[in-house]
Amino acid sequence: MSAAGTAGIARACRLESSIMPLLQHLCQLLNDSSFGTVIRESDYAYSIIESVHVISIALLVGTIAVLDLRMLGLLLQPIAITRIARAVIPLAWSGFALMFLSGLLLFWAEAAKMYGNPAFRVKVILLALVGLNPLIFHTTVYRRVHEWEGLRSSPWRARIAAIFSLALWGGIIVAGRAIAYF
């Protein structure tokens, strides 16, 4: 390995060794806060927030799945993709907002435990990837949707984006469930 490569790895290791304790400290502060304690120790708050989180994920993933399955040509083939998108995207954004807020509250209540949980870390990585998927899709393939929206089968790039979306959301759900077991 070259000297530049070795120096780059050393810099990355130093950066990780300085950021990780800071993140752990911030997680502990959130966990130990009175707000986090109230959520965690309440007879009802944590359960209600968790229920809202699950319902909001169902709303978000359910609406996105309709669009993804249409792009794969497995659902609602006679209906234009833009028409389906106009119908489901507002619901998806509502689900996303509720999911994000309830997830933040759940994290706040158990931040110290989540810091070291491998399933939680996988979920966060998958969430970042699932956020990139529509960003890339809407800035590339979807820009020319008027050319292909009426076709029974979407272009291969749209189908790939749909497959990634379904796979990533499936992974997020599995990782979210696995959090309880670590």
Tell me the number of helical segments per DSSP (H or I, 4 or more residues long).
8
Our measurement of the CA-to-CA distance between the termini, rounded to an integer number of angstroms, reads 37 Å
Q: What percentage of residues falls in helices of 4 or more residues?
A: over 70%
Amount of beta strand: under 5%
- The mean pLDDT is 86
**Whole-number tally of structural domains:** 1
- Rg over CA atoms, rounded to whole Å, is 20 Å
Q: What quaternary form is this?
A: single chain
Q: Decide which structural class fits the backbone.
A: mainly alpha
Q: Spell the H/E element sequence.
A: HHHHHHHH
Q: Based on CA inertia axes, which overall geometry fits?
A: elongated
Biggest sheet details: none
Count of distinct strands? 0
Q: pLDDT under 50 segments (min length 5)?
A: none
Tell me briefly what this model is.
The chain is mostly helical and 182 residues long.
Question: Notable features of this structure?
Answer:
single chain, 182 residues, mainly alpha, 81% helix
Structure, described:
There is one protein chain. This protein has 182 residues and is an all-alpha fold. The radius of gyration is 20 Å and the shape is elongated. The model has no long low-confidence stretch (mean pLDDT 86). 81% of the residues lie in helices and 0% in strands. The chain has one domain.
